[in-house]
Design brief:
By secondary structure, the protein is mainly β. It is built from two helices and 34 strands. The protein has two domains: about 35-345, Tachylectin-2, Chain A (5 Propeller), CATH 2.115.10.20; about 350-490, Exo-inulinase, domain 1 (Jelly Rolls), CATH 2.60.120. It has a six-stranded antiparallel beta sheet with strand order 23-34-25-30-31-32, with no helix packed on it. Strands 24-33-26-27-28-29 form a six-stranded antiparallel beta sheet, with no helix packed on it. The protein has a five-stranded mixed beta sheet with strand order 4-3-2-1-20, with no helix packed on it. The two termini are about 40 Å apart.
């Protein structure tokens, strides 16, 4: 009887989950066709990004009861290629200790926590809204949960929280990793306007090691969603990267992501140079990397939105998408260290050639394109002064201007912008340190991801045209030709 009852309970649960998530065909207006989106309801930060037994696990901040932010859960999806995702049941639900805010996941290969060898362990922030209402600051603490079936079911540690808050406000978003150099786990935590670093042998008891906030740093308010990992440069030098996210005061307004390059000894992180913004567009936030990826690859995923208007964008079934997964590499030039970002190699399996020509004379125009799912790439030998525009028969247009050492995007006439006065008050500007040599633009229904100079510079924007863009124009200031212009269509991944 117990087995039968359990079987029926599982069957009812899975049937209910399928029914509650079968109301969409992924063809709604503005629905991305090859970026990850939840089947329905609200999503924000990526969480617990990890690779295990041939699958990439994407957990994410999720509210299953509405399309605006609410009591947070961890949604869950898996993929074998980072492109085609299978939606799974909700992984973590709120409980008496609070809502489930952002965090990370690890594979405990040595059973250091005692939950089982190769247990998948989530480390997350509890956010207690009742404490917030009481006026106290210590509303956030860190908890853990474990799974012995690759993330399908979870058990929360009965003695949570494992890291109590002594009274600090904004005490959240743990990123945990195994540090073989010290034979311990490290945790980097966002606390107010700095990061705190901790260590542990078992994920249950944590020892404070140090604070990180550079002197004379930018005053950007609260830090969120940190990450910390090592990388080798193209010359074999090892450096550490600390990623920090900020909900406000990014270069073009609102949310944004920056990174520090430095050294880390398991206790203290020391930066080697000033921070760099990872993306200068208004729609790149909460970016963190996957752990445990084969060949020590670092693959980054971000939330493609902005807290200034995320709850107001004109979608109805779901809210928010993730960026395309981007593989990171670390380089160094005379001005210092920097990260390059490129789309993961699997992306090439989605593209099909539409147009290719060398030495394209400008002005160039191509009509009747499906620019809603398109990749446009080209190289520049001489001029960097040109305007690329995407438009439709309604006169709606999104423009990209390269002018000397600047990239400027403008969505003020791109379609539906009236849902928020903060969405498109101005054009967006990114200052560059180099002459532009290569340009990649990836379009997916309502988003543009721009990568310049093999991913040294990045700009991500949302837009909401009332009719898909179908006209591509490129105008050069001095009519110089563009070398190797390619236009590719990109296949839909949702079935």
């Amino acid at each position: 009887m117990k087995i039968t009852a359990l079987f029926l309970l599982i069957l009812l649960f899975n049937t209910s989950f399928a029914q509650n998530n079968s109301t969409t065909n992924y063809n709604e207006p503005y629905r991305p066709q090859f970026h990850f989106t939840p089947e329905s309801k609200w999503m924000n930060d990526p969480n617990g990004l990890i690779y295990f037994n041939g699958k990439y696990h994407l957990f994410y901040q999720y509210f299953p009861d509405g399309i605006i932010w609410g009591p947070m859960h961890w949604g869950h999806a898996v993929s074998t290629d980072l492109l085609q995702w299978k939606q799974l049941p909700i992984a973590l639900y709120p409980d008496k200790l609070g809502w489930i805010f952002s965090g990370s996941a690890v594979i405990d290969t040595t059973n250091s926590a005692g939950f089982g060898k190769n247990a998948m362990i989530a480390i997350f922030t509890y956010h207690n809204d009742e404490i917030v209402k009481s006026g106290k600051k210590n509303c956030e603490s860190q908890g853990i949960a474990y799974s012995l079936d690759e993330g399908l079911t979870w058990t929360k540690y009965k003695e949570n929280p494992v890291l109590n808050n002594s009274g600090e406000q904004d005490f959240r978003d743990p990123k945990v990793f195994w540090n073989a150099a010290i034979n311990k786990w490290n945790m980097v935590l966002a606390v107010g306007d700095k990061s705190k670093i901790w260590s542990s042998t078992n994920l249950k008891q944590w020892q404070f090691e140090s604070d990180f906030k550079p002197t004379n740093d930018l005053e950007l308010g609260v830090w969120e969603c940190p990450d910390l990992f090592s990388m080798k440069t193209n010359s074999g030098e090892t450096k550490w990267i600390m990623i920090v996210n900020h909900g406000d005061k990014a270069p073009n307004g609102g949310s944004g992501t920056r990174y520090f390059v430095g050294d880390f000894d398991g206790k203290t992180f020391k930066e080697s140079q000033k921070s760099i913004w990872m993306d200068n567009g208004t729609d790149f936030y909460a970016a963190v990397t996957f752990s445990n990826v084969p060949d020590n690859k670092r693959i980054l995923l971000g939330w493609m939105s902005n807290w200034q208007y995320a709850t107001k964008v004109p979608t109805e079934v779901w809210r928010s998408a993730m960026t395309m997964p981007r593989e990171l590499s670390l380089a160094k030039d005379k001005k210092g260290y920097y990260l390059n970002q490129k789309l993961v190699s699997q992306f090439s399996t989605l593209i099909k050639p539409v147009f290719e020509q060398a030495n394209v004379v400008t002005p160039f125009e191509k009509v009747n394109l499906d620019l809603s799912q398109t990749e446009v790439t080209f190289d520049l030998d001489k001029t960097t002064n040109f305007i690329l525009s995407l438009s439709n028969s309604k006169g709606e247009v999104y423009t990209i201007t390269l002018s000397e050492n600047k990239l400027i995007t403008d969505r003020r006439n791109s379609g539906n912008i009236n849902f928020s006065e903060t969405f498109a008050p101005n054009s967006q500007v990114m200052n560059l340190n180099d002459k532009i040599s290569s340009f990649k633009l990836v379009l997916d229904k309502s988003s543009a991801e721009i990568l310049l100079n093999d991913g040294k510079y990045s700009m991500t924007n949302l837009f909401f045209p009332t009719k898909d863009f179908s006209i591509l124009n490129i105008v050069s200031k001095d009519n110089s030709p563009i070398t190797n212009l390619k236009i590719n269509s990109i296949s839909r991944v949702w079935k």
